[in-house]
Amino acid sequence: MSEPPTASPQTLSSVTVLGTGALGGFYGSRLLLGGCQVRFIARSDCAILRRDGLRVDSPLGDRHHAPIEVYAASDPVPASDCVLIGLKTTENHRLPELLRPLVHPGTIILNLQNGLTAEEELVAAFPEARVIGGVCFLCANKIGPGRIAHLDYGSIGLAPVHERDRHLLAPLMERLAAGGITTEELPSLADARWRKLAWNIPFNGLSVVLNANTDVIMADPDARRLATQLMTEVAQAAAACGHPFAPGFIAERLALTERMTPYAPSMRLDYLAHRPLEIEYLYRRPLREAQSRGLRLTAIEMLADQLTFLERHHQRNPEPGR
Amino acid sequence: MSEPPTASPQTLSSVTVLGTGALGGFYGSRLLLGGCQVRFIARSDCAILRRDGLRVDSPLGDRHHAPIEVYAASDPVPASDCVLIGLKTTENHRLPELLRPLVHPGTIILNLQNGLTAEEELVAAFPEARVIGGVCFLCANKIGPGRIAHLDYGSIGLAPVHERDRHLLAPLMERLAAGGITTEELPSLADARWRKLAWNIPFNGLSVVLNANTDVIMADPDARRLATQLMTEVAQAAAACGHPFAPGFIAERLALTERMTPYAPSMRLDYLAHRPLEIEYLYRRPLREAQSRGLRLTAIEMLADQLTFLERHHQRNPEPGR
Q1: 20 to 30 Å CA-CA from A198: which of A302, B99, B128, B322?
Q2: What percent of chain A lies above the pLDDT cut of 70?
Q3: B275 to chain A nearest CA, in Å?
Protein backbone atom coordinates (compact mmCIF):
# COMPACT_ATOMS: atom_id res chain seq x y z
CA MET A 1 0.00 0.00 0.00
CA SER A 2 1.33 3.40 -0.98
CA GLU A 3 -0.79 5.47 1.38
CA PRO A 4 0.98 7.36 4.11
CA PRO A 5 0.19 6.06 7.58
CA THR A 6 -1.36 9.40 8.62
CA ALA A 7 -4.16 9.07 6.06
CA SER A 8 -4.82 5.40 6.83
CA PRO A 9 -3.13 4.41 10.03
CA GLN A 10 -4.47 0.92 9.85
CA THR A 11 -6.06 -1.23 7.24
CA LEU A 12 -9.32 -2.96 7.79
CA SER A 13 -8.97 -6.63 7.06
CA SER A 14 -11.79 -8.36 8.93
CA VAL A 15 -15.44 -7.58 9.64
CA THR A 16 -17.96 -9.45 11.74
CA VAL A 17 -21.50 -8.94 10.47
CA LEU A 18 -23.90 -9.18 13.41
CA GLY A 19 -27.24 -10.10 11.89
CA THR A 20 -27.35 -11.53 8.37
CA GLY A 21 -30.57 -10.03 7.10
CA ALA A 22 -31.05 -7.84 4.04
CA LEU A 23 -28.70 -5.12 5.25
CA GLY A 24 -26.05 -7.31 6.87
CA GLY A 25 -26.13 -9.80 4.01
CA PHE A 26 -25.83 -7.12 1.36
CA TYR A 27 -22.98 -5.13 2.91
CA GLY A 28 -21.28 -8.36 4.03
CA SER A 29 -21.31 -9.53 0.43
CA ARG A 30 -19.88 -6.18 -0.70
CA LEU A 31 -17.12 -6.32 1.93
CA LEU A 32 -16.22 -9.85 0.81
CA LEU A 33 -15.92 -8.50 -2.73
CA GLY A 34 -13.86 -5.62 -1.34
CA GLY A 35 -11.33 -8.13 -0.03
CA CYS A 36 -12.29 -8.35 3.63
CA GLN A 37 -12.47 -11.45 5.69
CA VAL A 38 -16.13 -11.46 6.68
CA ARG A 39 -17.65 -13.43 9.54
CA PHE A 40 -21.42 -13.67 9.44
CA ILE A 41 -23.43 -14.14 12.61
CA ALA A 42 -26.88 -15.49 11.89
CA ARG A 43 -29.75 -16.71 13.98
CA SER A 44 -32.48 -18.47 12.05
CA ASP A 45 -30.53 -19.03 8.82
CA CYS A 46 -27.31 -20.31 10.37
CA ALA A 47 -27.55 -23.88 9.11
CA ILE A 48 -28.62 -22.93 5.58
CA LEU A 49 -25.89 -20.29 5.29
CA ARG A 50 -23.33 -22.89 6.35
CA ARG A 51 -24.57 -25.43 3.83
CA ASP A 52 -25.49 -23.21 0.87
CA GLY A 53 -23.62 -19.95 1.41
CA LEU A 54 -25.05 -16.49 0.75
CA ARG A 55 -26.80 -15.37 -2.45
CA VAL A 56 -27.25 -11.70 -3.27
CA ASP A 57 -29.10 -10.78 -6.45
CA SER A 58 -28.30 -7.22 -7.38
CA PRO A 59 -28.18 -4.76 -10.27
CA LEU A 60 -24.47 -4.68 -9.39
CA GLY A 61 -24.31 -8.34 -10.43
CA ASP A 62 -25.72 -11.50 -8.85
CA ARG A 63 -23.33 -13.10 -6.39
CA HIS A 64 -23.13 -16.44 -4.69
CA HIS A 65 -20.62 -16.61 -1.85
CA ALA A 66 -19.94 -20.20 -0.78
CA PRO A 67 -18.63 -21.32 1.52
CA ILE A 68 -18.77 -18.44 3.96
CA GLU A 69 -17.76 -18.16 7.61
CA VAL A 70 -20.97 -18.46 9.60
CA TYR A 71 -21.43 -18.37 13.36
CA ALA A 72 -24.32 -18.68 15.73
CA ALA A 73 -24.47 -15.87 18.28
CA SER A 74 -23.34 -18.28 20.97
CA ASP A 75 -20.25 -19.48 19.02
CA PRO A 76 -16.83 -18.11 19.88
CA VAL A 77 -16.12 -15.71 17.01
CA PRO A 78 -12.53 -14.68 16.19
CA ALA A 79 -11.78 -11.01 16.83
CA SER A 80 -12.40 -8.77 13.79
CA ASP A 81 -11.25 -5.21 13.15
CA CYS A 82 -14.87 -4.13 12.79
CA VAL A 83 -18.29 -5.30 13.88
CA LEU A 84 -21.07 -4.24 11.53
CA ILE A 85 -24.48 -4.08 13.23
CA GLY A 86 -27.01 -5.55 10.84
CA LEU A 87 -29.82 -5.93 13.37
CA LYS A 88 -32.94 -3.80 13.54
CA THR A 89 -33.23 -1.41 16.46
CA THR A 90 -35.99 -3.62 17.84
CA GLU A 91 -33.13 -5.94 18.89
CA ASN A 92 -31.10 -3.24 20.62
CA HIS A 93 -31.94 -4.46 24.10
CA ARG A 94 -29.87 -7.54 23.18
CA LEU A 95 -26.93 -5.59 21.73
CA PRO A 96 -24.75 -5.34 24.88
CA GLU A 97 -24.97 -9.10 25.39
CA LEU A 98 -24.42 -9.90 21.69
CA LEU A 99 -21.56 -7.45 21.22
CA ARG A 100 -19.71 -8.21 24.47
CA PRO A 101 -17.68 -11.18 23.10
CA LEU A 102 -17.06 -9.41 19.76
CA VAL A 103 -15.67 -6.11 21.03
CA HIS A 104 -12.05 -5.68 22.06
CA PRO A 105 -10.00 -2.55 22.74
CA GLY A 106 -9.98 -0.60 19.47
CA THR A 107 -12.67 -2.63 17.70
CA ILE A 108 -14.68 -0.49 15.31
CA ILE A 109 -18.43 -0.80 15.82
CA LEU A 110 -20.17 0.26 12.62
CA ASN A 111 -23.80 1.03 13.31
CA LEU A 112 -26.01 1.18 10.20
CA GLN A 113 -29.36 1.51 11.99
CA ASN A 114 -31.92 4.22 11.49
CA GLY A 115 -33.05 6.52 14.24
CA LEU A 116 -31.38 8.38 17.04
CA THR A 117 -29.23 7.69 20.10
CA ALA A 118 -28.19 4.07 19.43
CA GLU A 119 -24.55 5.19 18.96
CA GLU A 120 -24.54 6.98 22.30
CA GLU A 121 -25.66 3.77 23.97
CA LEU A 122 -22.89 1.86 22.19
CA VAL A 123 -20.26 4.36 23.31
CA ALA A 124 -21.50 4.11 26.89
CA ALA A 125 -21.58 0.30 26.88
CA PHE A 126 -18.27 -0.14 25.02
CA PRO A 127 -15.92 2.71 25.89
CA GLU A 128 -13.01 0.62 24.60
CA ALA A 129 -14.54 0.52 21.10
CA ARG A 130 -14.55 3.08 18.28
CA VAL A 131 -18.13 3.74 17.23
CA ILE A 132 -18.85 4.86 13.68
CA GLY A 133 -22.32 5.61 12.43
CA GLY A 134 -23.43 4.88 8.90
CA VAL A 135 -26.49 6.32 7.20
CA CYS A 136 -27.49 3.92 4.44
CA PHE A 137 -29.66 4.45 1.45
CA LEU A 138 -30.46 0.88 0.59
CA CYS A 139 -33.38 -0.91 -1.00
CA ALA A 140 -32.91 -4.60 -0.26
CA ASN A 141 -35.07 -7.43 1.03
CA LYS A 142 -34.38 -10.83 2.42
CA ILE A 143 -36.31 -13.10 0.10
CA GLY A 144 -35.47 -16.39 1.78
CA PRO A 145 -32.95 -18.02 4.11
CA GLY A 146 -29.52 -16.89 2.90
CA ARG A 147 -31.05 -15.06 -0.08
CA ILE A 148 -31.00 -11.29 -0.43
CA ALA A 149 -32.52 -9.25 -3.24
CA HIS A 150 -30.79 -5.90 -3.66
CA LEU A 151 -33.19 -3.63 -5.53
CA ASP A 152 -31.58 -0.23 -5.68
CA TYR A 153 -29.23 2.29 -4.07
CA GLY A 154 -26.75 1.19 -1.40
CA SER A 155 -24.59 4.23 -0.64
CA ILE A 156 -23.48 4.96 2.91
CA GLY A 157 -22.67 8.24 4.61
CA LEU A 158 -20.19 7.73 7.44
CA ALA A 159 -19.10 9.68 10.48
CA PRO A 160 -17.50 8.78 13.80
CA VAL A 161 -19.28 9.52 17.06
CA HIS A 162 -16.04 10.99 18.43
CA GLU A 163 -13.98 13.22 16.16
CA ARG A 164 -10.82 11.53 17.42
CA ASP A 165 -11.92 8.44 15.45
CA ARG A 166 -12.38 10.21 12.12
CA HIS A 167 -9.14 8.72 10.77
CA LEU A 168 -10.80 5.30 10.95
CA LEU A 169 -13.20 6.18 8.17
CA ALA A 170 -10.66 6.01 5.36
CA PRO A 171 -9.79 2.30 5.58
CA LEU A 172 -13.46 1.42 5.96
CA MET A 173 -14.46 3.54 2.98
CA GLU A 174 -11.65 1.99 0.98
CA ARG A 175 -12.99 -1.53 1.56
CA LEU A 176 -16.55 -0.50 0.79
CA ALA A 177 -15.44 1.29 -2.38
CA ALA A 178 -13.50 -1.81 -3.41
CA GLY A 179 -16.78 -3.71 -2.99
CA GLY A 180 -18.63 -1.29 -5.25
CA ILE A 181 -20.29 0.83 -2.56
CA THR A 182 -20.39 4.61 -2.86
CA THR A 183 -19.47 6.23 0.43
CA GLU A 184 -19.47 9.78 1.70
CA GLU A 185 -17.68 11.16 4.71
CA LEU A 186 -20.20 13.11 6.75
CA PRO A 187 -19.20 16.22 8.68
CA SER A 188 -21.85 15.38 11.32
CA LEU A 189 -23.60 12.11 12.03
CA ALA A 190 -26.50 13.79 13.85
CA ASP A 191 -27.15 16.09 10.88
CA ALA A 192 -27.48 13.09 8.60
CA ARG A 193 -29.57 11.06 11.04
CA TRP A 194 -32.09 13.90 11.40
CA ARG A 195 -32.27 14.37 7.64
CA LYS A 196 -32.99 10.70 7.20
CA LEU A 197 -35.64 10.86 9.91
CA ALA A 198 -37.34 13.57 7.87
CA TRP A 199 -38.29 10.80 5.46
CA ASN A 200 -38.52 7.85 7.82
CA ILE A 201 -40.83 9.43 10.37
CA PRO A 202 -43.65 10.35 7.98
CA PHE A 203 -43.44 7.56 5.45
CA ASN A 204 -42.76 4.58 7.68
CA GLY A 205 -45.52 5.45 10.11
CA LEU A 206 -48.14 6.58 7.58
CA SER A 207 -47.56 3.50 5.45
CA VAL A 208 -48.64 1.40 8.44
CA VAL A 209 -51.52 3.52 9.72
CA LEU A 210 -52.91 4.22 6.24
CA ASN A 211 -51.95 0.80 4.87
CA ALA A 212 -50.47 2.39 1.77
CA ASN A 213 -47.22 2.67 -0.16
CA THR A 214 -45.39 5.91 -0.84
CA ASP A 215 -47.00 6.51 -4.25
CA VAL A 216 -50.53 6.26 -2.85
CA ILE A 217 -49.64 8.58 0.03
CA MET A 218 -48.10 11.17 -2.30
CA ALA A 219 -51.03 11.03 -4.75
CA ASP A 220 -53.64 11.71 -2.05
CA PRO A 221 -53.99 15.36 -0.97
CA ASP A 222 -54.82 14.55 2.66
CA ALA A 223 -52.11 11.94 3.14
CA ARG A 224 -49.63 14.25 1.46
CA ARG A 225 -50.59 16.99 3.90
CA LEU A 226 -50.04 14.55 6.76
CA ALA A 227 -46.57 13.70 5.45
CA THR A 228 -45.75 17.38 5.08
CA GLN A 229 -46.94 18.17 8.59
CA LEU A 230 -44.87 15.33 10.06
CA MET A 231 -41.80 16.35 8.07
CA THR A 232 -42.24 19.93 9.27
CA GLU A 233 -42.23 18.73 12.87
CA VAL A 234 -39.03 16.75 12.22
CA ALA A 235 -37.49 19.94 10.85
CA GLN A 236 -38.53 21.84 14.00
CA ALA A 237 -37.01 19.13 16.19
CA ALA A 238 -33.79 18.98 14.17
CA ALA A 239 -33.41 22.75 14.40
CA ALA A 240 -34.07 22.72 18.14
CA CYS A 241 -31.37 20.06 18.51
CA GLY A 242 -28.87 22.15 16.56
CA HIS A 243 -29.20 20.46 13.16
CA PRO A 244 -31.39 22.75 11.07
CA PHE A 245 -32.36 21.62 7.58
CA ALA A 246 -31.40 23.73 4.58
CA PRO A 247 -34.18 25.91 3.16
CA GLY A 248 -36.19 23.97 0.61
CA PHE A 249 -35.19 20.61 2.08
CA ILE A 250 -38.76 19.48 2.82
CA ALA A 251 -40.08 20.39 -0.61
CA GLU A 252 -37.15 18.62 -2.22
CA ARG A 253 -37.69 15.44 -0.15
CA LEU A 254 -41.39 15.38 -1.03
CA ALA A 255 -40.62 15.87 -4.71
CA LEU A 256 -38.06 13.07 -4.55
CA THR A 257 -40.61 10.76 -2.91
CA GLU A 258 -43.10 11.60 -5.62
CA ARG A 259 -40.62 10.55 -8.31
CA MET A 260 -39.66 7.34 -6.51
CA THR A 261 -40.77 3.92 -7.65
CA PRO A 262 -43.81 2.92 -5.52
CA TYR A 263 -42.20 1.73 -2.34
CA ALA A 264 -43.27 -0.15 0.77
CA PRO A 265 -41.29 1.34 3.67
CA SER A 266 -39.59 -1.21 5.90
CA MET A 267 -41.98 -0.56 8.77
CA ARG A 268 -44.90 -1.49 6.56
CA LEU A 269 -43.22 -4.75 5.59
CA ASP A 270 -42.48 -5.40 9.27
CA TYR A 271 -46.11 -4.71 10.18
CA LEU A 272 -47.54 -6.91 7.45
CA ALA A 273 -45.16 -9.70 8.50
CA HIS A 274 -46.13 -9.26 12.19
CA ARG A 275 -42.58 -8.32 13.14
CA PRO A 276 -41.88 -5.74 15.85
CA LEU A 277 -41.81 -2.12 14.66
CA GLU A 278 -38.87 0.26 15.09
CA ILE A 279 -40.97 2.76 17.04
CA GLU A 280 -38.53 3.36 19.88
CA TYR A 281 -35.49 4.56 17.91
CA LEU A 282 -37.38 6.14 15.00
CA TYR A 283 -40.07 7.95 17.01
CA ARG A 284 -39.69 7.87 20.79
CA ARG A 285 -36.03 8.85 20.86
CA PRO A 286 -36.42 11.84 18.52
CA LEU A 287 -39.48 12.88 20.54
CA ARG A 288 -37.41 12.62 23.71
CA GLU A 289 -34.59 14.70 22.20
CA ALA A 290 -37.07 17.39 21.17
CA GLN A 291 -38.84 17.30 24.51
CA SER A 292 -35.55 17.80 26.34
CA ARG A 293 -35.28 21.07 24.37
CA GLY A 294 -38.80 22.03 25.42
CA LEU A 295 -40.39 21.14 22.10
CA ARG A 296 -43.56 19.07 21.90
CA LEU A 297 -44.31 17.46 18.53
CA THR A 298 -48.01 16.67 18.50
CA ALA A 299 -48.28 14.98 15.10
CA ILE A 300 -45.23 12.74 15.57
CA GLU A 301 -46.35 11.85 19.08
CA MET A 302 -49.78 10.94 17.78
CA LEU A 303 -48.35 8.78 15.02
CA ALA A 304 -46.04 7.05 17.52
CA ASP A 305 -48.97 6.32 19.83
CA GLN A 306 -51.03 4.95 16.93
CA LEU A 307 -48.15 2.72 15.82
CA THR A 308 -47.62 1.45 19.36
CA PHE A 309 -51.30 0.58 19.61
CA LEU A 310 -51.40 -1.07 16.20
CA GLU A 311 -48.26 -3.11 16.83
CA ARG A 312 -49.59 -4.29 20.19
CA HIS A 313 -53.00 -5.28 18.89
CA HIS A 314 -51.86 -6.58 15.52
CA GLN A 315 -49.43 -8.93 17.20
CA ARG A 316 -52.14 -10.23 19.46
CA ASN A 317 -54.39 -10.81 16.52
CA PRO A 318 -52.51 -12.64 13.80
CA GLU A 319 -55.24 -12.69 11.15
CA PRO A 320 -54.39 -10.66 8.05
CA GLY A 321 -56.29 -7.41 7.63
CA ARG A 322 -57.27 -5.24 10.50
CA MET B 1 -104.76 21.48 28.72
CA SER B 2 -104.26 23.62 31.76
CA GLU B 3 -101.03 25.31 30.67
CA PRO B 4 -101.17 29.03 30.10
CA PRO B 5 -100.68 30.04 26.46
CA THR B 6 -97.47 31.91 27.25
CA ALA B 7 -95.73 28.72 28.33
CA SER B 8 -96.98 26.69 25.39
CA PRO B 9 -98.37 29.01 22.74
CA GLN B 10 -99.04 26.19 20.32
CA THR B 11 -99.29 22.46 20.46
CA LEU B 12 -97.31 20.19 18.25
CA SER B 13 -99.56 17.77 16.46
CA SER B 14 -97.65 16.57 13.41
CA VAL B 15 -94.04 15.68 12.63
CA THR B 16 -92.40 14.70 9.36
CA VAL B 17 -89.41 12.44 9.90
CA LEU B 18 -86.91 13.01 7.10
CA GLY B 19 -84.87 9.83 6.94
CA THR B 20 -86.18 6.69 8.60
CA GLY B 21 -82.95 5.14 9.85
CA ALA B 22 -82.07 4.21 13.43
CA LEU B 23 -82.47 7.75 14.75
CA GLY B 24 -85.48 8.83 12.67
CA GLY B 25 -87.21 5.49 13.16
CA PHE B 26 -86.67 5.48 16.92
CA TYR B 27 -87.81 9.04 17.62
CA GLY B 28 -90.60 8.73 15.05
CA SER B 29 -91.88 5.72 16.95
CA ARG B 30 -91.67 7.63 20.23
CA LEU B 31 -93.54 10.61 18.78
CA LEU B 32 -96.28 8.27 17.51
CA LEU B 33 -96.57 6.92 21.04
CA GLY B 34 -96.62 10.50 22.28
CA GLY B 35 -99.71 11.13 20.23
CA CYS B 36 -98.29 12.91 17.19
CA GLN B 37 -99.26 12.34 13.63
CA VAL B 38 -95.97 11.17 12.15
CA ARG B 39 -95.08 11.13 8.47
CA PHE B 40 -92.03 9.07 7.62
CA ILE B 41 -89.93 9.84 4.57
CA ALA B 42 -87.82 6.89 3.52
CA ARG B 43 -85.56 6.11 0.63
CA SER B 44 -84.52 2.49 0.36
CA ASP B 45 -87.09 1.04 2.77
CA CYS B 46 -90.14 2.89 1.45
CA ALA B 47 -91.95 -0.13 0.01
CA ILE B 48 -91.28 -2.38 3.00
CA LEU B 49 -92.36 0.31 5.49
CA ARG B 50 -95.59 0.76 3.55
CA ARG B 51 -96.29 -2.95 3.51
CA ASP B 52 -95.00 -4.04 6.94
CA GLY B 53 -94.85 -0.88 9.02
CA LEU B 54 -92.07 -0.01 11.46
CA ARG B 55 -90.70 -2.27 14.17
CA VAL B 56 -88.67 -0.89 17.07
CA ASP B 57 -87.28 -3.32 19.64
CA SER B 58 -86.38 -1.46 22.78
CA PRO B 59 -85.86 -1.83 26.53
CA LEU B 60 -88.78 0.61 26.67
CA GLY B 61 -90.92 -2.11 25.10
CA ASP B 62 -90.99 -3.61 21.61
CA ARG B 63 -93.32 -1.78 19.25
CA HIS B 64 -94.78 -2.51 15.86
CA HIS B 65 -96.40 0.46 14.18
CA ALA B 66 -98.55 -0.61 11.21
CA PRO B 67 -99.78 0.87 9.06
CA ILE B 68 -97.73 4.06 9.11
CA GLU B 69 -97.70 7.07 6.82
CA VAL B 70 -94.73 6.59 4.50
CA TYR B 71 -93.55 8.85 1.71
CA ALA B 72 -90.78 8.76 -0.83
CA ALA B 73 -88.74 11.98 -0.93
CA SER B 74 -90.36 12.89 -4.23
CA ASP B 75 -93.94 12.47 -2.95
CA PRO B 76 -96.01 15.50 -2.01
CA VAL B 77 -96.00 15.39 1.81
CA PRO B 78 -98.68 17.22 3.81
CA ALA B 79 -97.38 20.14 5.87
CA SER B 80 -96.36 19.16 9.41
CA ASP B 81 -95.69 21.38 12.43
CA CYS B 82 -92.19 20.02 12.65
CA VAL B 83 -89.65 18.33 10.39
CA LEU B 84 -87.24 16.06 12.23
CA ILE B 85 -83.96 15.57 10.40
CA GLY B 86 -83.01 11.95 10.71
CA LEU B 87 -80.32 11.95 8.01
CA LYS B 88 -76.60 11.76 8.64
CA THR B 89 -74.58 14.90 7.97
CA THR B 90 -73.05 13.14 4.97
CA GLU B 91 -76.41 13.89 3.28
CA ASN B 92 -76.44 17.58 4.17
CA HIS B 93 -75.63 18.72 0.63
CA ARG B 94 -79.08 17.35 -0.27
CA LEU B 95 -80.90 18.99 2.65
CA PRO B 96 -81.99 22.23 0.94
CA GLU B 97 -83.56 20.27 -1.90
CA LEU B 98 -85.18 17.70 0.41
CA LEU B 99 -86.47 20.23 2.92
CA ARG B 100 -87.76 22.79 0.41
CA PRO B 101 -91.22 21.17 -0.07
CA LEU B 102 -91.53 20.37 3.66
CA VAL B 103 -90.82 23.79 5.13
CA HIS B 104 -93.48 26.50 5.38
CA PRO B 105 -93.54 29.75 7.34
CA GLY B 106 -93.25 28.79 11.00
CA THR B 107 -92.32 25.13 10.44
CA ILE B 108 -90.05 23.83 13.17
CA ILE B 109 -86.93 22.15 11.83
CA LEU B 110 -85.57 19.83 14.52
CA ASN B 111 -81.99 18.93 13.77
CA LEU B 112 -80.67 15.94 15.71
CA GLN B 113 -77.32 15.63 13.94
CA ASN B 114 -73.92 15.64 15.55
CA GLY B 115 -71.27 18.19 14.76
CA LEU B 116 -71.20 21.90 14.22
CA THR B 117 -72.74 24.54 11.97
CA ALA B 118 -75.55 22.51 10.34
CA GLU B 119 -78.15 24.65 12.14
CA GLU B 120 -76.62 27.86 10.85
CA GLU B 121 -76.92 26.53 7.31
CA LEU B 122 -80.56 25.61 7.94
CA VAL B 123 -81.33 29.09 9.27
CA ALA B 124 -79.68 30.65 6.23
CA ALA B 125 -81.50 28.39 3.77
CA PHE B 126 -84.89 28.57 5.51
CA PRO B 127 -85.30 31.94 7.20
CA GLU B 128 -89.06 31.33 7.37
CA ALA B 129 -88.50 28.25 9.58
CA ARG B 130 -87.79 27.91 13.31
CA VAL B 131 -84.65 25.86 13.79
CA ILE B 132 -84.20 23.84 16.95
CA GLY B 133 -81.13 21.77 17.69
CA GLY B 134 -81.28 18.53 19.58
CA VAL B 135 -78.32 16.76 21.14
CA CYS B 136 -79.20 13.08 21.42
CA PHE B 137 -77.69 10.38 23.54
CA LEU B 138 -78.96 7.35 21.72
CA CYS B 139 -77.69 3.85 21.11
CA ALA B 140 -79.77 2.41 18.30
CA ASN B 141 -79.07 0.52 15.09
CA LYS B 142 -81.08 -0.22 12.01
CA ILE B 143 -81.01 -3.99 11.87
CA GLY B 144 -83.02 -4.42 8.67
CA PRO B 145 -85.50 -2.62 6.41
CA GLY B 146 -88.08 -1.05 8.71
CA ARG B 147 -86.47 -2.66 11.79
CA ILE B 148 -84.73 -0.68 14.49
CA ALA B 149 -82.99 -2.04 17.57
CA HIS B 150 -82.88 0.49 20.39
CA LEU B 151 -80.08 -0.57 22.73
CA ASP B 152 -79.81 2.12 25.38
CA TYR B 153 -80.22 5.78 26.28
CA GLY B 154 -82.34 8.08 24.12
CA SER B 155 -82.50 11.40 25.96
CA ILE B 156 -82.39 14.67 24.03
CA GLY B 157 -81.11 18.08 25.06
CA LEU B 158 -82.91 20.83 23.15
CA ALA B 159 -82.24 24.47 22.38
CA PRO B 160 -83.39 26.88 19.69
CA VAL B 161 -80.85 28.54 17.41
CA HIS B 162 -82.59 31.88 18.01
CA GLU B 163 -83.69 32.75 21.55
CA ARG B 164 -86.94 34.14 20.15
CA ASP B 165 -87.93 30.52 19.40
CA ARG B 166 -87.33 29.16 22.91
CA HIS B 167 -91.09 29.04 23.59
CA LEU B 168 -91.35 26.33 20.92
CA LEU B 169 -89.43 23.85 23.04
CA ALA B 170 -92.23 23.19 25.53
CA PRO B 171 -94.76 21.60 23.16
CA LEU B 172 -92.01 19.52 21.56
CA MET B 173 -90.71 18.33 24.92
CA GLU B 174 -94.24 17.53 25.96
CA ARG B 175 -94.74 15.20 22.99
CA LEU B 176 -91.39 13.54 23.49
CA ALA B 177 -92.06 13.07 27.19
CA ALA B 178 -95.45 11.54 26.36
CA GLY B 179 -93.53 9.11 24.15
CA GLY B 180 -91.20 8.16 27.00
CA ILE B 181 -88.22 10.32 26.04
CA THR B 182 -86.32 12.27 28.67
CA THR B 183 -85.64 15.79 27.50
CA GLU B 184 -83.65 18.67 28.85
CA GLU B 185 -83.88 22.30 27.89
CA LEU B 186 -80.36 23.52 27.12
CA PRO B 187 -79.28 27.07 27.92
CA SER B 188 -76.95 26.98 24.90
CA LEU B 189 -76.95 24.68 21.89
CA ALA B 190 -73.31 25.42 21.06
CA ASP B 191 -72.20 24.52 24.60
CA ALA B 192 -73.87 21.13 24.29
CA ARG B 193 -72.61 20.50 20.76
CA TRP B 194 -69.02 21.16 21.82
CA ARG B 195 -69.39 18.90 24.85
CA LYS B 196 -70.67 16.13 22.65
CA LEU B 197 -67.80 16.66 20.22
CA ALA B 198 -65.43 16.08 23.14
CA TRP B 199 -66.49 12.45 22.94
CA ASN B 200 -67.26 12.12 19.25
CA ILE B 201 -64.01 13.57 17.92
CA PRO B 202 -61.67 11.17 19.71
CA PHE B 203 -63.72 8.00 19.81
CA ASN B 204 -65.32 8.05 16.39
CA GLY B 205 -62.05 8.76 14.60
CA LEU B 206 -59.81 6.51 16.67
CA SER B 207 -62.24 3.62 16.37
CA VAL B 208 -61.76 3.79 12.59
CA VAL B 209 -58.01 4.43 12.43
CA LEU B 210 -57.19 1.91 15.17
CA ASN B 211 -59.97 -0.51 14.17
CA ALA B 212 -61.07 -0.85 17.78
CA ASN B 213 -64.06 -0.32 20.03
CA THR B 214 -64.14 2.03 22.99
CA ASP B 215 -63.18 -0.60 25.57
CA VAL B 216 -60.02 -1.59 23.66
CA ILE B 217 -59.06 2.07 23.23
CA MET B 218 -59.55 2.83 26.91
CA ALA B 219 -57.63 -0.26 28.04
CA ASP B 220 -54.55 0.59 25.96
CA PRO B 221 -52.24 3.24 27.46
CA ASP B 222 -51.20 4.71 24.09
CA ALA B 223 -54.69 4.81 22.62
CA ARG B 224 -56.00 6.31 25.82
CA ARG B 225 -53.33 9.01 25.60
CA LEU B 226 -54.44 9.69 22.02
CA ALA B 227 -58.05 10.05 23.15
CA THR B 228 -56.99 12.38 25.95
CA GLN B 229 -54.89 14.53 23.63
CA LEU B 230 -57.76 14.82 21.13
CA MET B 231 -60.25 15.66 23.87
CA THR B 232 -57.87 18.29 25.21
CA GLU B 233 -57.76 19.93 21.79
CA VAL B 234 -61.58 19.92 21.63
CA ALA B 235 -61.57 21.67 25.02
CA GLN B 236 -59.13 24.29 23.69
CA ALA B 237 -61.31 24.88 20.66
CA ALA B 238 -64.51 25.07 22.70
CA ALA B 239 -62.93 27.61 25.04
CA ALA B 240 -61.64 29.68 22.11
CA CYS B 241 -65.16 29.69 20.68
CA GLY B 242 -66.64 30.90 23.98
CA HIS B 243 -67.88 27.55 25.32
CA PRO B 244 -65.31 26.45 27.90
CA PHE B 245 -65.74 23.08 29.55
CA ALA B 246 -66.12 22.85 33.31
CA PRO B 247 -62.97 21.81 35.21
CA GLY B 248 -62.75 18.04 35.43
CA PHE B 249 -64.95 17.53 32.37
CA ILE B 250 -62.35 15.59 30.38
CA ALA B 251 -61.46 13.26 33.25
CA GLU B 252 -65.14 12.63 33.86
CA ARG B 253 -65.83 11.84 30.18
CA LEU B 254 -62.91 9.42 30.05
CA ALA B 255 -64.05 7.71 33.24
CA LEU B 256 -67.58 7.46 31.82
CA THR B 257 -66.23 5.89 28.62
CA GLU B 258 -64.26 3.41 30.67
CA ARG B 259 -67.41 2.30 32.47
CA MET B 260 -69.45 2.05 29.25
CA THR B 261 -70.41 -1.26 27.67
CA PRO B 262 -67.90 -1.95 24.85
CA TYR B 263 -69.20 0.19 22.05
CA ALA B 264 -68.60 0.57 18.33
CA PRO B 265 -68.97 4.30 17.55
CA SER B 266 -71.21 5.07 14.59
CA MET B 267 -68.28 6.13 12.42
CA ARG B 268 -66.72 2.73 12.87
CA LEU B 269 -69.96 1.04 11.82
CA ASP B 270 -70.15 3.39 8.84
CA TYR B 271 -66.58 2.60 7.88
CA LEU B 272 -66.99 -1.16 8.19
CA ALA B 273 -70.17 -0.94 6.09
CA HIS B 274 -68.40 1.20 3.46
CA ARG B 275 -70.74 4.12 4.07
CA PRO B 276 -69.51 7.72 3.86
CA LEU B 277 -68.03 9.11 7.10
CA GLU B 278 -69.26 12.24 8.91
CA ILE B 279 -65.85 13.91 8.66
CA GLU B 280 -67.06 17.30 7.45
CA TYR B 281 -69.44 18.23 10.29
CA LEU B 282 -67.66 16.32 13.08
CA TYR B 283 -64.08 17.37 12.23
CA ARG B 284 -63.69 19.94 9.47
CA ARG B 285 -66.29 22.37 10.79
CA PRO B 286 -64.94 22.39 14.36
CA LEU B 287 -61.43 22.81 12.92
CA ARG B 288 -62.67 25.72 10.85
CA GLU B 289 -64.34 27.35 13.86
CA ALA B 290 -61.13 27.04 15.86
CA GLN B 291 -59.01 28.27 12.97
CA SER B 292 -61.18 31.36 12.62
CA ARG B 293 -60.19 32.14 16.23
CA GLY B 294 -56.52 31.66 15.37
CA LEU B 295 -56.29 28.19 16.91
CA ARG B 296 -54.67 25.30 15.09
CA LEU B 297 -55.50 21.81 16.38
CA THR B 298 -52.76 19.52 15.15
CA ALA B 299 -54.03 16.20 16.51
CA ILE B 300 -57.62 16.69 15.34
CA GLU B 301 -56.42 17.88 11.94
CA MET B 302 -54.22 14.84 11.63
CA LEU B 303 -57.05 12.50 12.56
CA ALA B 304 -59.36 14.22 10.07
CA ASP B 305 -56.78 13.85 7.30
CA GLN B 306 -56.28 10.17 8.13
CA LEU B 307 -60.04 9.57 8.10
CA THR B 308 -60.40 11.35 4.78
CA PHE B 309 -57.66 9.20 3.30
CA LEU B 310 -59.09 5.98 4.72
CA GLU B 311 -62.61 6.76 3.56
CA ARG B 312 -61.40 7.57 0.08
CA HIS B 313 -59.26 4.48 -0.30
CA HIS B 314 -61.54 2.12 1.57
CA GLN B 315 -64.41 3.04 -0.71
CA ARG B 316 -62.28 2.39 -3.75
CA ASN B 317 -61.24 -0.95 -2.38
CA PRO B 318 -64.27 -2.85 -1.18
CA GLU B 319 -62.51 -5.95 0.17
CA PRO B 320 -62.81 -6.37 3.92
CA GLY B 321 -59.67 -5.63 5.94
CA ARG B 322 -57.27 -2.93 5.03
Answers
A1: B322
A2: 95
A3: 18
